[in-house]
Amino acid sequence: MDQTSAGTHMTYSTVTGYFMQDDLGTDASRFDYKSVNFGLKNRSYSPDEDFESVSKKTQWQRFEQEVSRLNHESKSTVRYKVLFLGRHGQGVHNVAESFYGTSAWDCYWAKQEGNGTVNWVDAHLTELGKDQAQVANQFWSKMIADQKIPVPQKYYTSPLDRCLSTARLTFSGLMLPTNQAFTPTVKELLRETNGVHTCDRRSPKSYIQNEYPTYEIEVGFTEEDELWLPDKRESNSALDARMKLLLDDILTDENSDFISLTSHSGAIASILRVIGHREFRLVTGSVIPVLVKSEINSKLLPPTSVTLPTPAPTCESEGH
Q1: CB 3.0-4.6 Å disulfide test: which of 59, 95, 110, 277 passes with 14?
Q2: So what's the pLDDT on residue 255?
Q3: Is 88 a catalytic residue?
């Protein structure tokens, strides 16, 4: 794919028809990616598919060929990529929000560092959250062995601990090609909606280096969290602009057509908006694959409006 230049910009769109999650009729609240081959539809592809390919190769092997065909036949300004968007396993903050209720959580408890029993600054995984990541690991192992699924060629993760840990539990120990080892890059832009909630305030860079020594940390990553603000919450439009910058950064690699991103519910929802995908809410520990068409566009960039951060909410009563 050609590189962007002055006066050009990247545009993204979801290529529908390949995954069940693309369909409006698929109920996200009941969907289990593990029971339906990650949601990949059982269908034929190009008319050029030969009988041997259809009869002897798995659906994922044929889909990998389809992505290769799309890229081979596309213009130099177009590239097709598959993103595996994985939400972290259950965190201690998720349990706290469920216990106190979303209203009380947003207006009071999310601003606290904990409740005297549990600390949720840069929230860590619960035991259930760890189990969810282990289930994902077992599913990937089965898919690699049985379906010959193309494994990610690049791995990216949010810098928040619940994602760093989920990624490690999900992808460690898998039978991966030697040239596609699990060595994720920590990306600041991939973090959750920022501000106010202490669970979204990340730990220092030195902590990440000590706890996850095999991870690569992007250039320019600061020691302390310089982005989190205690009194202002990032707006959805600002989050979408941030995720657009992230995609502009990571989707320029011509050698990586299958990419894993371990992130958060808000960040993943934003990525889906940026690529024009239908809304599809993920429960903790779940994954959605999407086929994305990225294109260098020389037309004028349409005007966009980014809403300012919102002030921290206050509770209407003393009872929180």
Answers
A1: 277
A2: 82
A3: yes
